[in-house]
Amino acid sequence: MTIEPVRFRPSFGRILSVVVVLIMVSAAGGYLLTGNIEGFFRYSWWYAVVAGLVVAMYWSPSVDVHKNGVRIRNPLRTWEVPWAAIERIDTRFALTLFTPGRRIEAWAAPASGRFTVFRVGPDDLRVSESARVAGSVRPGDTLASESGQAAEYIRRHWERMRDTESLDHGDGHVTYRWHGATSAILTGLVAGATIATML
């Protein structure tokens, strides 16, 4: 059984990241334009901290669906979830994969609010059966939401594997790795900002 690899990333997060970075660069550049070199070296660190945090939280996260399972990249940690480890898929607050002993939420696929229902069309409700709770579809499960799009793609493949008993022969071990570089950079920026402010 083959699956087309797909990456889900929130468009809003990428737009927000670009906008915030541009604002922070402009704010820091304002010190140079006015000749305030001291202010630049003292406060531009904090602009870098804000830009770094926004990029880590809204640009970097993603959900990758591939033949071996689902890779969820969050701001500080990336999870590798094999198909056989998935017990349930939920979208109450965000795309969430339930595995033995833990649940893994995806920052890149937040659930939409209740107002999503006002812009949902008939095509947005064509979701797999396991997405329906008591016969209805949650706003976070509709194809109009980022969580719903990712969840539906994962559910369809997971259900096919479940129905053909392919999950019984797969690896069910969930692994993760910390983003050491991201943590080090953010820590360094905060330390630099604190020191520069105190000088």
From TrEMBL:
<keyword id="KW-0472">Membrane</keyword>
<protein>
    <submittedName>
        <fullName>PH (Pleckstrin Homology) domain-containing protein</fullName>
    </submittedName>
</protein>
<keyword id="KW-0812">Transmembrane</keyword>
<dbReference type="Pfam" id="PF10756">
    <property type="entry name" value="bPH_6"/>
</dbReference>
<feature type="domain" description="Low molecular weight protein antigen 6 PH">
    <location>
        <begin position="61"/>
        <end position="109"/>
    </location>
</feature>
<dbReference type="InterPro" id="IPR019692">
    <property type="entry name" value="CFP-6_PH"/>
</dbReference>
<feature type="transmembrane region" description="Helical">
    <location>
        <begin position="12"/>
        <end position="33"/>
    </location>
</feature>
<feature type="transmembrane region" description="Helical">
    <location>
        <begin position="45"/>
        <end position="63"/>
    </location>
</feature>
<keyword id="KW-1133">Transmembrane helix</keyword>
